[in-house]
Fold this sequence. Notes:
The complex is a heterodimer of chains A (292) and B (385).
Chain A: H1 3-33, H2 40-57, H3 62-85, H4 93-115, E1 130-133, E2 136-139, H5 140-162, H6 164-174, H7 176-181, H8 186-212, H9 219-233, H10 238-259, H11 264-278
Antiparallel strand pairs in A: 1-2
Helix pairs in contact in A: 1-5, 1-8, 1-9, 1-10, 2-3, 2-4, 2-8, 2-9, 3-8, 5-6, 5-8, 9-10, 10-11
Chain B: H1 2-18, E1 28-34, H2 41-60, E2 69-75, H3 80-92, E3 98-102, H4 106-119, E4 123-125, E5 142-144, H5 149-163, E6 167-173, H6 176-192, E7 195-201, H7 209-217, E8 222-226, H8 231-241, E9 248-251, H9 258-264, E10 271-276, H10 291-305, H11 311-330, H12 334-343, E11 347-348, E12 353-354, E13 369-375, E14 378-383
Parallel strand pairs in B: 1-2, 1-3, 3-4, 4-5, 6-7, 6-8, 8-9, 9-10
Antiparallel strand pairs in B: 10-13, 11-12, 13-14
Helix pairs in contact in B: 2-11, 3-4, 5-6, 8-9, 11-12
Amino acid sequence: MDSNTLQIIFSGLGTGSIYALIAVGFNVIFKSTGALNFVQGEWVMMGGILAAFCFNDINMPVWQACLIAGVAVALIGGLTERFLVRPLVNQTPFALTLVTVGIALLSKSLVMLSLGKNPVGYPGLSTTTSTHILGASVATQTLWILGITLTLMALTHVFFSYTRWGCAMRAAAANPRAAALVGIRHSRVVFSAFVLAAAMGGLAGTIITPLTLMSYDAGAMLGFKGFSAAMLGGLGSLFGAMAGGLILGLLESLVSGFVTSQFKDALAFLVLLLVLVLRPQGLLGKPEVVKL
Amino acid sequence: MRFTHFLRGLAAATLTLAAPLTQASEPLTIGTILSTTGPAAFLGEDMKAGMEIAVDEINAAGGINGQPVKWVFYDAESQTSKALNATRRLISQDDVDIIVGGGNMSGIALAMVPLATQSKVPFISTEGAHSIVAPVAEREWVFKSTVDDRQVFERLKDYFDKKGITRIALLHDTSGFGQAAAEELKKLAPSLGLDVTFEAFAPTDNDLIPQLTRIKNSDVQAVLCWTVTPAGVIFAKQAEQLGLTDRELIHSYGFVSQKYMELAGSSADKLLLVSVKFPVGADLPDSDPQKAPIKALTDAFETRYGRAPNQYVAQTYDAIQLARHALQASGGEPGKTRATLETIQGHKGVGGTFNFSSERHSGLSKEDIVLIKWADGRFRLHDYK
C-alpha cells in the first residue's frame, strides 16, 4: 500500500471514529426509549464550543478544557432528560423523537446567543501537530481520536456486559415491564442513557474541534452523519455503530481521494441507501422478529 | 424582528432631527437582505454595519435631494427560501425603490435575481459570483458592488505570469460561491492559458486530506481555495500537514478575515489571499485613489463600533453609496435608477473605482485587486500591481 492510500485511510478512520462515537450515542438512547435523539449532534457541537471557551477564555490546558466540557455536556444531557423529557405525558417513541428535534433547535439557538456565531478552535492534545507513519503524514490529533474512540468503545462494552448497572439498562431496554417487575426503574435507565450519550457526544466534540473547528451550527450535519453510521451498522448494536462509523468515514475519504470529490456525500449516502435496501436491519443489526 | 423595528425607529428619529426642510417629502426606500444568522452570519453583521454607516451619513447630510432615506432590513438566516420571501415582501409590501444586498451568499443573490428582474426593481448585489450580473441581457436590473471571480482570475493570471505558473488546482466548496467560481474558471481557463484541475468539498466538510493528497500527487504549481466557510482553515492546516507549502497556496477574497487567520495559526503565514485593497489600506502608496476613502471609512467605523472594520463593511458601504448616486438622479423612478447605474463612471468608492456600462454591471476591475499576506497579526500588501 503506498503512502497516499495510507494517508487517505488515516483521514477516513479519524472522521469515521467521530461518526462512530455519535452513532453510539444514538444507539444508547434508541435502546432505552425507542426514540431517535436528534440532540446528539448538538451535544457534539456543545462539547467543542465549551472546550474552546474553557481554553480561550478561562485559559485552561487543553486536556482539562476537554474533560470539563465533556462533563458539562453529560450534565446538560442529564438535565435535558430530567426537565424536558421526563415530564412528557405522551412518551411514545415518535413523540420523543419530535421533542428531541425541538430541543436540538433550542440548544443551537442558546449556544448562538450565549457564546456567539464565530467558529472556534484550539490546539490538539499533543504539542506536535503531525507525525509520519510509513510515509503518510498524520495529524497527531487523529491518533488521539482513534485511541480515545477505541478506549471509549471498550469501556462502553465492559459497562454494558459486565457491570450491574449496564446489565440493568440492557434488561430495561429488552423488556421494560419485566425489568420494572424486578425493580429496575425505567426513568433512571433513561436518565443514565441520556447522560452516557451526551458524554459520548461531548467528548467526540472536544477531540474533533482541534482538527475541524466548531461553530454553533455544525451539530446538525455531524448528527446526521452519526445517524447514518448508526443505521448503516444496525441501530442498537454497539459494534454496528463502530463499524458503521468507520465504514462511512472511510467510504467518504476513499471516494473523494480516488473517484471524485464533487459527489463525495452523494456516493457515500448512495452506499448507505443500498445497504438499507438490501439489508434493512443494518450490517450488524438483528432483524426484528414479531411473533403473532 | 424587534431589532429591525428598533432600527426603523432609529432611522425615523434621525430623519425627524435632520428634516426641517424636507418635512413634506416622501422618503426613498432602500431594502436590504443580509444573513445575520446561519452559516454566513459572520459576514452579515459587518456588512449590515457598513450599510448602517452609509445610510446614516446620507440622512445626516439631509437625505437624497431633500428626501430622507428609509432603510428596511430583513435577515435571510443564510437560507434561500427565507431570502426569497423577504424579497417578495420588500417588493410588494415595503414598495422599495431599490434593493441593496443579496443575503451575503452568492447562491441567495442568484436566486433573488429573477424576482428583481420580473418586478423591475433595481438590485445592487453585494455578493461575489460573476454570474449574478452575467449575461447582462438577462440581468438588466442587477448590479454588483464587489469584485467578482472573473476579475480575480484575471488578476491572478498576472501574478502567475510573474511566477511562471501555468498549472493550478481549484479547490472549491459546493456552495453557490464555490460552484460559480468553478463554472467561471472552466470558461476562462483556455483563454488565460491555464491548465486547471478541479476539486470540490462540501461547506460543512471537516476533512480535506483526500482532495489535498490528490493535489499533492499532481504537478500543479498553485492551489486556489475558494470558500467563505471555516473549511478554509482546515485547508490551510492540512496543506501544511501534507507539506504542500512548496506550492503557492492562495485563498479567494471570500476568506480575508482576521478571525480565520487567527484560527489557522502558524499555517496562515504560508497563505496568499486575493483581496480588495481595503485590508491593507495603510500599506498602499499615497497615489492610490482608495487610500483616502479607506481611511475615512475605517475611522468612522472605529468611532461607532469600537473595532476595526473589514472589507465586507466596505463593499456594502459602497453599494449604498452607489444606490444614493442613482436615486439622486432618478428620484426613485425605477427605470431611471437602473439607467443611471449603468452610466456611473470613475466613482471612487472604498472597495475600488467603479465603472459601469450597459455591457458591464460589475463595477470593479482587476486593478482594484491585490495579493496580501498575513504576518504579525495583520494583513500586509504582497503584490500591488
